[in-house]
Design a protein that fits this description.
single chain; about 45% helix; 2 domains; globular; mainly alpha; two-stranded antiparallel ribbon; two-stranded antiparallel sheet; 8 helices
Amino acid sequence: MKQKVKIPVKAFAVIGVLLTLVGIMAFALHSDEKKNSAAVSKLPVVKKDSIASVKAFKQVYTVLMSARCMNCHPSGDVPLQGEDSHLHTMLPKRGVDGKGVYAMKCSNCHQATNTPGLHTPPGNPNWHLPPADMKMIFQGRTPRQLAKQLIDPKQNGHKDLKKLIEHADDGLVLAGWNPGEGRKLPPIGHATFKKAWITWLTTGAYAPNGK
């Protein structure tokens, strides 16, 4: 007669725990697959069209070169000011993080909201220049130079296509259309700008010809 092998109760418990762990891992992997699929489905679809792309960027360029954008994207380390984009009269400096140096910080004058009154400091909770290690200069850039700079992750703050599209609704970008009393708005509305920005990016982000 064959002798029955008795399996200790503890062994059953261990097997039960192992099976539970395997189930949890399988569920987690399935969940990750679903998350990854969802993330991929949210990525913008690019359909290349150089003519549409360049045409859209021409609209984008008019906004980026307006005082509302360019004044915070100077070629030097002093922000610009006014509709003629002259050097900021207080001569604040960029600093490592773009928020000023020593006691002269951007937030000293630029509060969370616009200061009431004509030509008073505009405000935003995150007011700053680009940081010193990624200056994102607009001033003096040709359309071609600026387009190539904007899509280069080494120059644009490590932004991929999805993040660039999202940047159109960044708080500081939106502040350009709420500049405070006495200041001109960008040449086109934000909705038109955003549409042109997304069109430029999703049709290939082509840089206009020229230097």
